[in-house]
Amino acid sequence: MSTPPFKQEPHKLLLIPGPIEVSDEVLFANAHPSMSHVSPDFIPVFGDCIRMLREVLFTADGQPILVAGSGTLGWDQVASNLIEAGEDALVLNSGYFGDSFAACLETYGARVTELKAEVGAAPSPADVETALKSKPFKLITITHVDTSTGVLSDAKGICDIVRRVSPDTLVILDGVCSVASEEIRFDEWGIDVVLTATQKGLGTPPGLSVLCVSQKALKVFETRRSPPSSYYASWKRWLPIMKAYESGNAQYFATPPVNLIYAFNASLKAITKAAPSLEDRFKMHKEASQRLKRALEDLGLRQVPLDPAFAANGMTAVYYPDGLVASDVLPKLNKDEIVVAGGLHKDIKDRYFRIGHMGLSVVDPSRGDLDRVIQSLQHIFG
Amino acid sequence: MSTPPFKQEPHKLLLIPGPIEVSDEVLFANAHPSMSHVSPDFIPVFGDCIRMLREVLFTADGQPILVAGSGTLGWDQVASNLIEAGEDALVLNSGYFGDSFAACLETYGARVTELKAEVGAAPSPADVETALKSKPFKLITITHVDTSTGVLSDAKGICDIVRRVSPDTLVILDGVCSVASEEIRFDEWGIDVVLTATQKGLGTPPGLSVLCVSQKALKVFETRRSPPSSYYASWKRWLPIMKAYESGNAQYFATPPVNLIYAFNASLKAITKAAPSLEDRFKMHKEASQRLKRALEDLGLRQVPLDPAFAANGMTAVYYPDGLVASDVLPKLNKDEIVVAGGLHKDIKDRYFRIGHMGLSVVDPSRGDLDRVIQSLQHIFG
Prior knowledge:
The structure is a homodimer. Chain A is of the alpha/beta class and about 375 residues long.
């Protein structure tokens, strides 16, 4: 795509853990003239999103599913398609999003066992192994990065444990805050579902629930005894649609968010076809993260994740220094035209804040986004 | 909003029954820079959408609910929040969308009675009355305009029957293809839920499920014996969010489609604050519809709706003349840079096509959209 004759309006620098700063190209695509959702012009745009998502997740035959909705809808898709009433699910809880995924699974009839870590940690490998051995779980859920704590879970390590001690258990990775900012090897690690959304590492406005489902999980789905327990989230409805768009045809179940698909396509193109490569993208996120985290440490600020090895590379959750509260800090950043996020985890809500560093702000250092926020933080806390 | 420095790209004229042609202002709003979903700048944009939607539906205290998703998600919201397992629902079927709404209700445990009309008709008032007297229905659903047939149901007349013979039955109006192109008097007619989407009469790209719920329906919801049977569609989750945004605060359940909310706001402003008035808007849709339908009649084309009094004002479904099929007609329109829609109703799929005439193409005659399609049709069939 050539550079469009479009420049987005001046605005405050958005450094929250999603939505993130979005490129002019992506916003221009979101302003595409209205198109029929079954038009021959639109079909390959949708089909290419499916194909490029596979590249981002390093999968040969994972089945992408793109449905209008928030990231949360991904939980409903997992729960209503893969769980039948009374089946067991193991939820690894590293913050707010574990609690909510558990509530969603229960809504659709799962018996949920939660492994809750203390705030700032993820459940230990030993606890995961013990739990997996205690009964046959239909699925296990991992919050790859819990946006409420900035804790990064060891997705690969957990996949290894599952394969070793409970190979029938499906591995569900909540990658809302990790896809395209943390390395994910769908096939190699043996993941069965990645669920995510467009407004974080994928660099697109919010409004699309994005999933990738393994052939193994599809077989489990296809041999369900009861019908899926949701209508809108039912893969029975969506799989034929995804297959149709990918093969160059259109089929109708519900009108897709046409403009957002154009925008997603533009962002996926930048991620998969332009520099940096995916490997370099992950590396740049790691480097940017370490730079910001070091700067905060130098200022004496303590991070929420207890183990630096398991802190997200796309966001930083950090406590206010003793004696300071949100209103001492966030308005000052705001005065510097920088938007960060307050706390979300109920146990520590008022004691910390969150900085997002994903996508453009990281892979295009010429923007100077990271410099700006570090300077502003140094000015406030230095 | 002043005229933005933005002009959408040249494109084929989109005259399908949704998505429809969208204004430059709305597309420019859809390209708004990324914003935090809890930012003080964004909160009133969301709050105003809620307030303006009430104006469009002529309701004082209906509760709007705006959730990322396709229009279809509105069915899940109705079924999972208002139906408990084993309760009876009466579905008035005037085409494809009645079948699907019934399937959705059954997914969430409803016992569905369908009143099926012949293709081109809606169930008769006498049949509706008889059915309502046969057992106590928790709710009745009406497809206001069935997009597959272009049949307009007599929503007001059915509301009157319900109030007279079964006043506890909730009236659910599927207004996906009618809101802002057909008159709807939420309070006066006694409607309990209107469900719709943004990409038709509301003149915005697709991706938002839009509902308005009566206080009576909310009471029924609040006194459910079982929890809502969906997580993502649960009003228990969404009602506090809607109330927060309307009162000038933000609360988090799932990230709203921020850019689309800006776009929806821009379109609602045009609908509620600028000329034509809502009454004139309905009148213009009626006049445009009659003009197109007369032109088709003059060309000897027969419409799908059997009774002209119950044909939609925002779309026209019309049979090909004897001996002609889609490939004789649609490519010719396409050559004139006009996109219309093929058939959708399974019984007559290959025998008819559909023309949308909602929103901009109708309320701004200076665009000449209607002239263009009529001329093209006269050229093809004349």
